């Protein structure tokens, strides 16, 4: 057990070091969306996830009022992207809902709210050099579950990735692997994490998932809750974990 804990601690320390050189950017301009499309193209072509035609690179719900598209930058280079949907009984737009509507509507009809992280794509060349990219990217989904205080965080994933989500996020399988899933060229399974039960032990085991409240606000607040739109957001995991640090404000960028 001690060796497992030591390995986990070393891994967490490594991720905290990587986060020191990471910036998150909420994508709301055409120029940034073009960069996102390029990353999606590279990832989808490599993995043959979706057809590279029509509206698969940028689609209408990228601009939904409850959708949040992010770019993850490492040393000022875009390395990955993810789109999150805040799904509620009153606002049911989501990618997972378009594939498995019965199961998603069952959650919503029970009064639950959800985070649906999809369109996760990483630059294949960078991913070979930095296999930790999924953690850096999925940290945003963890922050969203915290910010919106949702009941479940969904995972619409390849069956071969299910073990990862079970091991890291204690995700339950909602739909067993299915073929012929809409536009997808791959089999898919639907999983879901019970966020209110899972977040406290997740933060304890992997402190790089932690964040300060102001970071979550910079990432997800809109309208009257956000007096200005931040250019970039620096991760606050180290500050949240160790309880020290300094907040620096430069232009429209927050650093923690």
Give an account of the 3D structure:
The longest helix is centred in the N-terminal third of the chain and has 18 residues, at 2-19. Helices cover 41% and strands 23% of the residues. Residues 245-256 have low confidence and may be disordered. The strands form 2 sheets. Strands 1-2-3-4-5-7-6 form a 7-stranded mixed β-sheet, with helices on both faces. A two-stranded antiparallel sheet has the order 8-9. The radius of gyration is 18 Å and the shape is globular. By secondary structure, it is α+β, with helices and mostly antiparallel strands. It comes from Shinella curvata. It holds the Pfam family FeeM. Residues 36-193 form the N-acyl amino acid synthase FeeM catalytic core domain.
Entry summary:
The chain is built from 10 helices and 9 strands. With 256 residues, the chain is an alpha+beta fold. It has one domain (2-255): Gcn5-related N-acetyltransferase (GNAT) (Aminopeptidase, 3-Layer(aba) Sandwich).
Blueprint of the fold:
Layout lengths: L1 H18 L2 E5 L3 H18 L19 E8 L2 E11 L7 H5 L1 H9 L4 E9 L1 H6 L3 H16 L3 E6 L4 H8 L2 E7 L9 E7 H11 L7 H8 L16 H6 L5 E3 L2 E3 L1
Parallel strand pairs: 4-5
Antiparallel strand pairs: 1-2, 2-3, 3-4, 5-7, 6-7, 8-9
Helix pairs in contact: 6-9
Overview features:
Aminopeptidase; N-acyl amino acid synthase FeeM catalytic core domain-containing protein; 7-stranded mixed beta sheet; 23% strand; 10 helices; 256 residues; 9 strands; two-stranded antiparallel ribbon; Acyl_CoA_acyltransferase
């Amino acid at each position: 057990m001690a060796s497992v804990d030591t390995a986990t601690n070393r891994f967490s320390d490594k991720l905290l070091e990587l986060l020191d050189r990471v910036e998150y950017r909420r994508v709301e301009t055409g120029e940034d969306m073009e960069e996102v499309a390029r990353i999606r193209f590279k990832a989808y072509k490599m993995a043959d996830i979706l057809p590279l035609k029509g509206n698969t690179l940028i689609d209408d719900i990228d601009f939904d009022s409850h959708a949040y598209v992010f770019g993850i930058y490492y040393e000022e280079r875009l390395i990955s992207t993810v789109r999150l949907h805040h799904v509620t009984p009153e606002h049911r737009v989501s990618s997972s809902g378009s594939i498995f509507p019965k199961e998603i509507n069952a959650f919503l009809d029970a009064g639950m709210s959800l985070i649906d992280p999809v369109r996760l794509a990483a630059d294949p060349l960078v991913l070979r050099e930095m296999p930790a990219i999924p953690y850096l990217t999925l940290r945003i989904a963890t922050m969203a579950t915290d910010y919106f205080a949702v009941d479940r965080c969904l995972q619409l994933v390849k069956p071969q990735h299910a073990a990862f989500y079970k091991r890291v996020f204690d995700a339950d399988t909602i739909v067993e692997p299915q073929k012929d899933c809409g536009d997808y060229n791959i089999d898919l399974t639907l999983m879901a994490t019970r966020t209110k039960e899972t977040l406290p032990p997740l933060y304890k085991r992997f402190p790089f998932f932690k964040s300060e409240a102001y970071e979550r606000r910079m990432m997800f607040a809109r309208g009257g809750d956000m007096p200005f739109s931040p250019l970039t957001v620096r991760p606050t995991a180290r500050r949240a974990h160790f309880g020290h640090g300094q907040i620096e404000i430069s232009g429209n960028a927050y650093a923690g």
